[in-house]
Amino acid sequence: MIDLLEKEYPHAKEIKAVEGLKILLGIDPSSMKQTTITRAEIDRLKLNQTSKAFILLKNATVHYFQDQFGEAIQSINLSNQLNEEDQNPFLTYFNFTLLAQLYEEMGELSKALALLRKIKDWIRLFQFSPSMQKNYFINFYITITGIYLKQFKMEKAANTLKKASNQESEHLQAAYLYNQAEFLYLSNQPESAFKIVQQFEHEMSNYANSLVKSGLIKYCLKNNQLSKQYQDSFINSYHENPSFQNMNNQLFYSLILLKQQDYRAALTMVDHLLINSRRNKLLLKTVEGTLLKITILLEMNSSDERLIKNLYGESLYYACENTIKAPFYLYKETLVTLHHSYGTHLIEKLDPKEQQFHKEVLLICCDDSGTMLTAREKEVLMEIANGATNKEMAQSLFISEATVKTHILNIYRKLEVNSRITVVEKARELNLL
């Protein structure tokens, strides 16, 4: 309908203002011109209060994609004010759902959860049709799943993900697949997760641009599942779309630079991101940024022990209050290295609550001995170090050669290496041998 209005009235300001509402319908935001309309311009439009409130909601969505969280919250508040008289339920629902997503991106997960619980009550109270109510509940379950995943509350995430499985619209299906893939990555099932990512890439045409899914494909990159061609394609898209150079994409770009061993460029980008995230009190981005910076410094063989400890302490400080755990799992190899290098000295000067949170993230990243390898993988690793062939390992461990290959690939993935020589070197660095 919006497309028809644009064609019929190409110069009407009111239609151009409404055009941006397509973002709310699941249209790939990277394919559209990302502009907002000032409050003064909105007031001059010949539209009723509800229509103006919708435009403010669209403004908030644009601000959200551009990391302008303060401006987004202000637009939502203005939209709610214009909606006070009519109390349009759609506006009420999406204003507060977007506000919850803003809190989520800012790392204010406790605020997001509290607001989502209110939203669930509103869905029950509003006089929606059964099909519309169903879609709103599915959207609710998808949104709250994303928060549970960031907190590594995997049982709760599995439950809400199951409740969101019966979706019909492409927009909801895309969000569901996104969460499903992330759930599998955080459950240490990277092969199954990547199959979901490939399904997402193949079926979700509105999300073809990698710039709108960097929060997911970072897991693919960490698990060595993205080709150099895909990485280079992302970099080209990043430079061609300045309005989408948000923090999620900056983090992913930095991760690509790290993978390609351009450490100085990666460090420069992360430092720039941390300036902004700290200044704007964006907890989640600060946690991700500090952990990525530590990873880069370790790859550069930095001897600045004080800096590394301070950065890790900062990550715990910003993460513990809202139970932000997923970034630590993403960089679990870094945590293992820190644990082996510094032991309890890593956290000895931190507050008790941060020390306790450190113990909690170690539990999800390591086993009791401080590694990410299973008992069988450790046996295979020892055989590799002794120079055994796959056939010899299969015979001595009483398993098939196919199983040996699977264990070797898992060891390579977990230690982020790709050969027998480098896996032995890395294992010795981590005191696994």
From TrEMBL:
Record GO biological process: regulation of DNA-templated transcription
Sorted UniProt keywords: DNA-binding, Transcription, Transcription regulation
SUPFAM superfamilies: C-terminal effector domain of the bipartite response regulators, TPR-like
Transmembrane segments: none
Gene Ontology MF terms in the entry: DNA binding
Domain HTH luxR-type stretches: 366-431
Signal peptide: none
SMART domains the UniProt entry points to: HTH_LUXR
Pfam families: GerE (PF00196)
CDD domains per UniProt: LuxR_C_like (cd06170)
Cross-referenced Gene3D superfamilies: Tetratricopeptide repeat domain, Winged helix-like DNA-binding domain superfamily/Winged helix DNA-binding domain
Cited PROSITE patterns: HTH_LUXR_2
Protein name in the entry: HTH luxR-type domain-containing protein
Provenance organism: Enterococcus rivorum
